């Protein structure tokens, strides 16, 4: 995970969220305030503006994630701004200033999940973004743990890049499955919990946007993201 991949991931997430804004808002209208897509895109628009101003965007991956988190906390309304903002800030805070290997990035994803769980006081099964975030992080780390240890020579850099792309793809699939698993759940947290049994049968909007987050990571890791300077 270097600064280029960090920028591509954030840019890809912002692009995906804007493309899915109407769907996210529709999902939230069923069991929430009906503003998740609009609010998330408002904050991510500010992040994209930062990325387009190359001279102002932080250089190191950790700094970029931290600044992204701060912008989301400031410009995304509702709980999602605090949750996504805190997740990105925790990821950034867990990364060293130097280039980050896959294992350190797995630790950073763990930190992002922990921040989300702590702030939202949610656990898997509550019908929240945690239902997609948790299996994604677990899949990323489990995939990585199953791979042979890197020797660390220059010739193995492409292999490490493939490790990251494959681990990110595993995380994206797990996030998708976790999001879909919220449909039959009854919400136990947030505004959706006020609906009781009526929340059953709806995809949680936070889990849906978290699926976009990890799908975007997989695309960026494979080099398919739109460059942030475009």
Automatic annotation (TrEMBL):
Pfam families on file: Dak2
An individual GO BP term: glycerol catabolic process
Top-rank taxon: Bacteria
Gene Ontology CC: cytosol
Keyword line: Kinase, Transferase
Gene3D superfamilies on file: 1.25.40.340
The DhaL domain, residue ranges: 4-219
NCBIfam families found in the cross-reference section: dha_L_ycgS (TIGR02365)
Protein name: Dihydroxyacetone kinase subunit L
């Amino acid at each position: 995970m270097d600064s280029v991949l960090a920028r591509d991931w954030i840019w890809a997430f912002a692009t995906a969220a804007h493309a899915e804004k109407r769907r996210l808002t529709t999902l939230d209208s069923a069991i929430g305030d009906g503003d998740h897509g609009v609010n998330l895109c408002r904050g991510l628009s500010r992040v994209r503006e930062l990325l387009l101003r190359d001279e102002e965007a932080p250089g190191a991956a950790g700094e970029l994630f931290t600044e992204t988190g701060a912008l989301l906390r400031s410009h995304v309304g509702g709980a999602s701004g605090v949750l996504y903002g805190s997740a990105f800030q925790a990821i950034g805070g867990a990364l060293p200033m130097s280039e980050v290997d896959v294992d350190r990035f797995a630790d950073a994803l763990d930190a992002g999940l922990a921040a989300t769980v702590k702030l939202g006081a949610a656990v898997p099964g509550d019908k929240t973004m945690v239902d997609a975030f948790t299996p994604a992080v677990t899949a990323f780390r489990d995939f990585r743990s199953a791979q042979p240890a890197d020797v660390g020579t220059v010739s193995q850099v492409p292999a490490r890049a493939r490790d990251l792309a494959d681990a990110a793809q595993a995380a994206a699939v797990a996030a998708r499955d976790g999001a879909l698993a919220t449909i039959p759940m009854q919400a136990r947290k947030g505004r959706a919990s006020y609906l009781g049994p009526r929340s059953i049968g709806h995809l949680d909007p936070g889990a849906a946007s978290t699926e976009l987050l990890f799908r975007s990571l997989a695309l960026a890791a494979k080099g398919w993201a739109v460059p942030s300077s475009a």
